[in-house]
Amino acid sequence: LAKEQGGGHVEVYAAHMHAQVVERLELQTELRQALADRAFVLEYQPVVSLETSQVTAVEALVRWRRGDGVLVPPEEFIGPAEDSGLIVPLGQWILREACQKVAVWRATTGLDIGLSVNVSARQVLSQGFVQSVEEVLAESGLAAEALTVEVDEEILLENPVVAAERLTRLRGLGVRLAVDDFGMGHASLSHLRRLRVDAIKIDPSFVRELDSDDTVTLLTRTIIRLGQDLGVQVVAEGIEHPWQLRRLKEMGCAYGQGFLVGRPMDAAGVEALVGGEANATVR
Ligand code: C2E
Ligand code: MG
Ligand code: MG
Ligand code: MG
After folding, report:
1. What does pTM read for this prediction?
2. Partners of 176 in the beta sheet?
3. What was the pLDDT predicted at 24?
4. CB of 73 closer than 6 angstroms to any ligand 1 atom
5. Phi, psi of 91, rounded to the nearest 5 degrees
6. Rounded to the nearest whole angstrom, what is the distance from the C-alpha of residue 201 to the centroid of ligand 2?
7. Residue 104 neighbours by CB under 8 Å, 6+ apart
């Protein structure tokens, strides 16, 4: 009897696993179709100088506009897109779309607005990545110095030699490199030793707990100091409350992002923001 029951459990479990696999495959098919249908859209979140409140750059953030009109957040599809390899053509589209837009905004406003684009490890490790960035810059006319590529700390875990080589070549083009979600990885400091970067982005989990936790405050101050000592830009992410902004400024953090200082917005929103020129700045 026990054996029968056990077998039953295995079956239920297997059926559950099967359903998950099918769901994942269906999602990957939908994503492939979405890319063909041009159903991905970009939003842009301002990066501001905490000193002057002026916009220095925008970070491109991808969304999937599903058939029913719902905007699906990246957390729900970037993973599957990475697993299926679709992240390579999707990432290529994101880069091209964002570079074209920002190149136009820079030309029409005369403002030195930077662009940050997130890239996945899988993308960086794919064949011809550096060359494809070079091509997009040439096509769009965006200055390499205006582009920052954001990578997660984990990028150096899987294939450290190739990843570091690619990213170093990318920097050789003049493109800036940022470490996203800094402080959350297993080896934040050793990554900085392996790879020259231009910016570090403090993870929102630090900003959230600035008030309540002395250790978090100490660590945040240390990251900011580290950035200053290394000559690296420090961007605090996830600023939602005026007290967080105040604390970060006091600690000498130069740049920030968050719902308080600017929500992700569509391209028309950015045009209204920088076209009004009141808010943006020439660096
Ligand atoms: P990330 O690069 O760290 O981007 C910041 C995320 O925090 C964005 O979520 C943004 O909307 C959100 N955020 C900004 N300010 C606040 C705030 O004040 N409070 C809170 N609670 N959240 C804030 P989003 O757009 O859902 O993106 C999530 C992640 O998905 C990104 O994290 C990035 O890792 C990934 N992602 C987004 N776009 C792309 C892309 O084009 N390519 C790749 N490979 N990954 C992307
Ligand atoms: Mg990012
Ligand atoms: Mg990230
Ligand atoms: Mg982040």
Report:
1. 0.92
2. 148
3. 86
4. yes
5. -60, -35
6. 8
7. none
